[in-house]
UniProtKB/TrEMBL annotation:
Transmembrane segments: none annotated. Its cofactor is Mg(2+). It is an enzyme of class 2 (transferase). The chain holds residues 1 to 210 of 283 of the full protein. One of its GO terms (biological process) is L-histidine biosynthetic process. Belongs to the ATP phosphoribosyltransferase family. Long subfamily. Residues 51-203 form the ATP phosphoribosyltransferase catalytic domain. It is found in: Cytoplasm. GO terms for molecular function: ATP binding; ATP phosphoribosyltransferase activity; magnesium ion binding. This is ATP phosphoribosyltransferase. It comes from Hufsiella ginkgonis.
Length: 210
């Protein structure tokens, strides 16, 4: 049978938990060092180590058969993939936050304001749903400092503990989407026996954690 490929984050918040989950599934492989592909010695599988932003498209395009990535990234890229299993780690929520000193009180007050984010697609969808027009300022990181620099009136960014908002004088205003790491696959691969076997192993690891 054809060797499968699973794409996981190379380094970052999801890497360690993704590697741990696969090891707990009984898969034996070397963790990413310099090689971007690690063969699994006891299952017909290769691990691809990628930037998380690339994972949904790799799976959609069939370069990888499976992937582990945050729901936020799947939504932002708009990739058409099958959600196979929620994984219970990497939990966070994409929120709009405003400075403590802001005069913004209701959702409608966001109209005409500048909002900095690394998630312009999801934010635009949220604004459209609320029939709002705002100036979306797309930046790739350190979004939380932009209101203090006078670049924006609000931000839309991921929050887990809330510590980063707090230390930048911001407060949560409204939730845009909740997210966690999920196992994704390609649509139409439902009959692949190796994929089914892997999903079953993942599910039994998750059940054992309950
Ligand atoms: O290099 P690569 O592109 O692969 O990684 P990355 O830098 O884009 O992503 P990374 O490793 O930061 O996050 C990977 C995934 O982890 C995200 O896509 C989310 O699905 C998930 N995740 C969970 C988070 C957080 N929690 C989180 N708190 N991703 C980012 N953050 C950031 C947030 O952007 C903010 O700057 O942490 C800060 C806030 O954290 P708190 O705890 O202060 O609220
Ligand atoms: Zn990324």
């Amino acid at each position: 049978m054809k060797t499968l490929k699973i794409a996981i984050q190379k380094s970052g918040r999801l890497n360690e938990k993704s590697v741990e989950l696969l090891k707990n599934c009984g898969l034996s492989f070397d963790n990413y060092k310099s090689s971007l592909i690690s063969p699994v010695s006891n299952f017909p599988l290769e691990i691809l180590f990628l930037r998380d932003d690339d994972i949904p498209e790799y799976v959609q395009d069939g370069i990888a058969d499976l992937g582990i990535v945050g729901e936020n990234v799947i939504s932002e890229t708009g990739a058409d993939v099958a959600y196979l299993q929620r994984l219970g780690f990497g939990k966070c929520s994409l929120k709009i936050a405003i400075p403590h000193t802001s005069t913004i009180r209701s959702i409608g007050d966001l109209n005409g304001k500048a909002i900095a984010t690394s998630y312009p697609v999801i934010l635009k969808r949220f604004l459209d749903e609320h029939k709002l027009k705002a100036d979306i300022r797309t930046i790739s990181g350190s979004v939380e400092i932009s209101p203090g620099l006078g670049m924006s009136d609000a931000i839309c960014d991921l929050v887990s503990t809330g510590g980063t908002l707090k230390s930048n004088g911001l407060q949560s205003f409204t939730d845009v989407m909740a997210s966690e790491a999920v196992l994704i696959g390609r649509k139409g691969d439902e009959d692949n026996l190796l994929i089914s076997e892997l999903i079953q192993r993942v599910q039994s690891v998750l059940r054992a954690r309950e």
